[in-house]
Amino acid sequence: MTTQPSQVWMVTGCSTGFGRSLAEHLLDHGQKVVATARDVASVADLADRGDALILPLDVVNREQCTEVVEAAVRHFGAIDVLVNNAGIGYFGAIEETDDKIARLLFDVNFFGTANTINAVLPVMRTQRSGTIINLTSIGGLSGFAAVGYYSASKFAVEGLSESLRIEVAPLGLNVMVVEPSGFRTNWAASSNEVENPIDDYDQTAGQARRAYHQSVGNQAGDPARAAAAIFTAATSAQPPRRLLLGNEAVDVALAKAATLQAEIAAWEHVSRAADFPDEDNTDEQDDQR
User: Fold this and answer.
1) Which helix or strand (DSSP H or E) is residue 284 part of?
2) Which of 38, 121, 165, 184 has its C-alpha lying 20 to 30 A from 198's C-alpha?
3) How many CB atoms lie within 10 A of CB 108?
């Protein structure tokens, strides 16, 4: 058992995957958990595992998000940690992705996250304490073929998280993003995909789709270890702003950082020249004339 004091964690999308593993880990370590899912029958057994409040939640429904937060506070008296885990995936090139699918990805992955954040912020502001953890993806830091709109929705959550962190830090609140690579969850198996692929994208998006399917059950990441890592990071004295999970996530992030740094340096003179000339330097040059 952990020596960490018991806190109240609200976790979305607990029926499978990261949400399920994290809820189990928290309950096994003496934490209080508000376990939510669209189908509460899929998480009902968590109540037998520890101090869990099981509530139905579709994160797209902003009113229901508020109702769940209110019910959690009535039951436990506080919400110390919000974990935004609920999300969906889709495999298809940008051009192959139907507009309705693209908007659904943003409704669930981005606006669903925003809905729970907005529901819990009044509670955490009053407490002057709290941690918000948003699960994005390594695809929220670096784009990949076949998941363009999915990545875009996760990039959006990253941007929201960075701005939110600045706004709430003076109030005693923390914001952390979690960026996993491939883990043995049902994400790849449950994600829908394009029905009529375009041949021109077969070697990019098509190849990536096939690789995702072949990876099911063989992904390197262990959801149970991921849950332990999230718990360790969130309860540390100085939680990280972003937590990478998995070797691939670390490798991709380091490669992107190196590429970004090299390209900024190579084009720095062009980038800096886009500003109006510095007035002091201009005046000095005029005097010398």
Assistant:
1) helix 279-288
2) 184
3) 19
